Amino acid sequence: MAETETKALRVKEKRGVPAVAERTRPGPTFTPAVDIFETDREITLVADIPGVKADNLLIDVRDNVLTLAGEVEAPEGQGEVDVLREYDTGKYLREFTLSEMIDQSKIEAELKEGVLRLTLPKVEAVSPRKVKVNVE
Amino acid sequence: MILRRLPNLPRLDWRDPFEELERMRRQMDRLFEGLSGRLLSEPTAGVFPLVNVTESSDNYYVRAELPGVKSGDMDISVTGTSLSISGERKIPPEDEKANYHRREREAGKFSRMINLPGQIDTSKVEARCTDGVLSIVLPKSEAAKPKQITIKTS
To answer: Fewer CB atoms near the end CB (10 Å): N or C, chain B?
Structure first.
């Protein structure tokens, strides 16, 4: 279980996505890195969205499509001049099609240190049940 | 030579084929530059984390995106003109029964050195981590600050 050696983190360039509709505010859009895992009762989604404040985050479930959208405000203050620029900031956008029925009233979201954790509980009826096959 | 097998290739100056290749490479660079709006000749350091450095007349600012890294797991140190950021990004293990659909986030150690263009006042450096973005303010030392020179009129 315990790993003796921790591997070094590699640089991952942010992946840009083309804007769906014409944007009113210019700027790049990125797809955040996510982990998605599922248990019997719920689906959990963890996304890296550094720089997004809770007020600027939009989570929407509609017609089985989950949309995550976040705006990042440029952190640079006035009078700052670029010396070195290795990453860009902009919007985060990602959509997922949910194959399971989700109980929308029980969705929970937590944003901490730039990481969003979204818990999507499954509707009771779809929780797996053992089906007994009767043999006559 | 592979070129001999391609009869449709435009005629090259055979006295210096490398010069021709170099010219083509420059043209390609210019093309990509126009597409991405970024200079290809200025690649990133390739070391995690990527940083943005800006300056004002009083300070240098270094910013890096480090989502999910606790401030206790980060180590920042400064010398006269350089800054070092190191630490570890930990991703706590989930429920053993969880089945993964996607796993794109990575955990691991990082360590990076950034050379600043000028001397800094090491005693007044401040670092802050909000919403997964590390932001370090490094005040310039008096000697590195720009000085306004008044022109005397006689």
So the answer is: C
